[in-house]
Every structure is written in structure tokens, then in C-alpha cells.
Amino acid sequence: MSALASSLPPRFKVLSAGISAITLEACVTKILAMVERREKGYVNVCTVHTMLECVDRPQVAEIVNHSTLSVPDGMPLVWLGKHNAEGVSVDRCYGPDLMLGVCRSGLEKGVRHGLYGATPAVLEVLEQNLRGMFPRIEIVCAISPPFRELSADEEREMASKINAAHPDVVWVGLGTPKQDLCLGAFRPILEAPVLIAVGAAFNFHAGKVAQAPRWMMRCGLEWAFRLLKEPRRLWRRYLLGNPRFVSLLLLQRYKEWRAIRGARCEH
To answer: In 140, 144, 183, 227, which residue has its Cα 20 to 30 A from 176's Cα atom?
Structure first.
């Protein structure tokens, strides 16, 4: 086992997935250590929606559970981490903040970045904005894939384009579960040390979608802000998904309580 692998944070269980008990600062440090040591891995930035996809799609759960890091983006996951991961610091690893943190901290190390996802127009503005914030940043490729499932040949073609640019970190912004499945498919065929799925970070940093105020984020109300902004696209995810997540979580806790109670009765 490598030094990096042996120092990875513990995980706490949320439904069928294990979430890394980690802070944003520690996550940035781990990612840059992977780049420096050329250790291959990938990072899932997880929300409540990710957890439900893990329940519904075992393949997504397998990818999340076998990641180098699966970090808590959604505030409910942060709260669960603070409650369950005793003695370990847990904080929100918000995808857009994680992206900026790695870009900023990687400047002195000459980290090379690749962008994969979104439309060509969004990628163009995203790259311009990142270069505006970090004038010395090295963005070596920006690829907009077709908005459909890729064939095996198309995946290899995309991977060849990315590999030819030699990025150290590949940012994947396709939305869950597409981006998570992408990590699983691309990890064996990409040479870049780190792949990171960051959800809507591309659209946020390109200014296509407005970010919620920080106070709403801290209170766990970001979902309400996003629902108001994009009701037709997100109503099912939040109005149906959030209650389902709470119900499944309560059922899981009840089963755990019954198991503990049963074990005590046997003694």
C-alpha cells in the first residue's frame, strides 16, 4: 500500500455508499499529493442526489465506494459526517470551491488542467474566467463530449485526445450519474493522475447558473435556491428526491437499531 493510500481518511456510511470524512483543505492537499507522486485515482463530489443514484444504480455505488475520495458536497452529508465520524474533522467540499482551491494551490507546482464536459460555449467562457482568476494557470485541453452515451470507440477517442494534452488533473462536469460513470469508464484508460467529478461547477464558474448565497448554503437551503432558478429541470430531484432520501435514511437507522438491539438481547 502506498503512503498516500494508507493516509486516506475514514469513511462514514450513507445508505449504500461510503463518504470520506474530510475537509476542503485536506481534500486539496490530497489531490496535489496524488499529482506530485503520479498516483492514479479519482474523486467523486457527492450530494444527496448522488446517494440516491447509488441506491438505484449499483454501478454508481461501486464507483463511489472504490474512489480515492468521495467527498461530502451536500450539507446533509456534512451533517451526517459530523454526527457519525467521531474524532475526525468533516466539512463541506463544495465542488466549485474545490475546483478553485486546486487551481490556486496548484499554480506553484505547475499543475496542468483538463476540462471535460458542458458545451463548447460554456467551456470557452469557463476557460476565460479561470485564466482571469489565475493568469498563470495551465489549461491544456477543454473537450465537450456529445450529450449522449458514448460507444467504446468514442470513449477511447476522447481518452486519446486527453492523454495527448498530458493534464495532471481532469475536471469532469457532466452531472450525476453521468459524470460518475464517466470516471469509472475513463480511469483505466487515462494517464492523468487525478480525475475529479465536480457537477455544476463548470456552469457556475462560467456564469451560466447563479450560485446560492453562502448563508443558504450553510443552512442546507441551496436546493431551494436552485429549484427556484431551474424548476422544470430540478423539481423531481428535490421535491421527490429529498423526502425519499430522508425516508431511506430513517429506514436504514431503524434497521441498524434493530440489529444492535437484537445483538444485545442475545447476550
So the answer is: 140
Measured over the CA atoms of residue 258, residue 241, residue 67 and residue 189, the dihedral's sign is positive
CA 88 to chain centre: 20
CATH of 3-212, one of 3.40.50, 1.20.120, 1.25.40, 2.60.120: 3.40.50
The owner of cell 450539507 is 75
Whole-angstrom Cα distance, residue 142 to residue 237?
A: 29
- Cα–Cα–Cα angle for 101, 102, 107, nearest 5°? 105
Q: Are the C-beta atoms of 77 and 18 separated by less than 8 Å?
A: no
Please report which residue ranges of the chain form alpha helices under DSSP H: 3-6, 24-37, 48-56, 58-65, 75-84, 95-105, 120-133, 152-165, 178-186, 201-205, 214-218, 222-229, 231-235, 241-266
What's the CA gap between 46 and 18, in Å, rounded? 10
For residues 82 and 149, the answer to whether their CB atoms sit within 8 Å is no
Checking if the pLDDT of 1 tops 50, the result is no
Give phi and psi for 114, each to the nearest 5. -120, 145
Q: At what angle do helices 152-165 and 178-186 cross, to 10 degrees?
A: 70
Residue 116: all three cell numbers together: 471535460
Residue 131, number of CB atoms within 10 A of its CB: 13
Sorted by where each begins, the domain ranges of the chain are 3-212, 224-266
For 93-114, the pLDDT digits (tens) are 999 999 999 999 999 999 999 9
